[in-house]
Amino acid sequence: MFQTNTSLDNSITTSKQLNQALIRNILIQNSDAINILNSVFQNNTSLDGGALQFNNANQIAINNCSFNYNIAKGSGGAIFLREAKKLIIDNKSNVSFNFAEIGGGVRVISSQFDPEQTILNKTRISQNTALIYGKDIGIFPFKIILNFQHQKFRQLKQAENQKERKSLLFNKKYFDKIISDRILGEENLFIESFRSGNFLPLNIQFVDQYDQLVQFSVQKLKDELYPSSVQQELNSFQIEITADDLFHSQAIGQTFVNYNQYNEDQKTFKFTSLQINAHPLSIQSFLIKAITNSFLQSALINLKLNIQFRQCQRGEIFKVINQNIKICEVCQSGFYSLIDSQQTQNETLTCIKCPAQATSCEADTIILKDGYWRSNNYSDEILECDDFTSTITCRENNPDSKQGCIKGYIGPLCQECDYEVFTLLVLICVT
Hints:
The protein is mainly beta. The relative contact order is 0.08.
């Protein structure tokens, strides 16, 4: 039930008057119209809302008031708003030099109203500090930045000259109707030429409306040193990746991250073992769902990730996962395959054990020992070189070698001279 009217006039609220730092504020709730006039709020400390906290208010008017040097241990350095429809601040008022973990000046939490439209005259809220996010006004993270490592990707419908950017920023979009789970952004992202069965190293950062990266201490969170409201919010930060079509694609392994996978130095949530499977030469969709707030209702950022899967390549073999999904499995260390998978889809192919004439093998690479020769890098017909000279001429791994031969020699088994001269009727290769 709403009260008709609440007013504060000619008030000065400061902890210094009482010679102690009070961990409390003024709470006003269930009011229709609230007017705060000619008042000063300074040097106050509380958990949420350093000076004032409003719960379930229709309209709050602040006229000729100052909110300075207030501290909230949790959110809203000066003012905390929960389910408040409007906060109107006149040009004679200011909210400055306040401090909080979230929302240095004002914190807004609402499931009924658009929090971006709650505060009128936001310019009067400035020069505040927030440690986690929302330096002046804290709502919740509005955007996410995605960073992919070693992947070609593009945002659908974006300019061609931007198609290989290394990170993309997704902004929120509000809908006209209030829905149970607010969707902050829906965008399409396209990754090209991805190997089925490969891991997708994915780093995600949350960003507020000031383009400030969300940052917090994992150890402090685990030790429960944040106020309970901040603990609850940070614990709710999570990102999940799922396949849109479970019959034709898979996201397996690390499909979910939360604060345990948060890197404080990079301010990033990290996917390090996320494996993506589908049929080669298909295009599949995956959904990235980021939850950023758990007060009353969740705030969601939904992104659709479209992946174009390439054909298996030389050094990879087909491995059947099920009737609709195959992966391109790379031959691991000690094994190799030189068959071009683009010309055959033989599912019975296997990786071949490294031959004795090689020092190592992996994928489509064979590293020969000195003294052995082959016609090209894609041949596993390996021959032992004769003692053509006192010099070992077959050295495929020599940086100056040519067709598997050291400088000055060429041809099968390196028995021909690339450049030659005769000295005393003896053929000498010029090296």
